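Annex B. Sample input.
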Amino acid sequence: MPANAEMIDASEAEMAALASSCARQLRPGDVIALHGDLGAGKTTFARALIAALGWRGEVPSPTFTLVQSYEPPDVRVPVWHIDLYRIEGPDDADALGLFETDAALVIEWPERLGARLPHDALHLHLSGSGDAIRRLTWTVPEAWEGRWPPHSPT
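Annex B, continued. Sample output.
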C-alpha cells in the first residue's frame, strides 16, 4: 500500500538537490511519475536527475519527441525521459515501448497512461511555477520504501 508524505516547500535549487539525491537511489526499471501543471517543475526535476546520473550534455524537453533516452556509459543507470502531454490516451502510448525496456522511466504527464501506469511508480506531485517556491507531495509505493525521500531539502 503506497504511503503518502507531507508536503514540502522547495526552491528550484532545493528541487535540484532532491532530484540529485533521488538519482543516487535510482535503479533500472524504476518509474517516477511527475505530476503537475505546465511550469510546475517536472522538466526541471527530470533534467537535474539526469544530470546527477552523469549526463554532461543538454537535456532537452521531450515534448515533441515524446521519449529521450540516456544510456550508459554516459549515465549510471539507463533512463528514459518521457513527456506524454501530446498523447490523447493510453492507446497512443503503446507505440513508445515504455514497458518493454529495463531503463528507469521518468514520466511527465503520467495520468495520460491511465491504469497502464505501473502500480510501483513513485508519484511526485509538483505545484507552483517560475521562480516561486514550489510545493511537492509524494506517494511512495513499496518498491521505493527506504529510498524516498532520499533526504529533506534544507
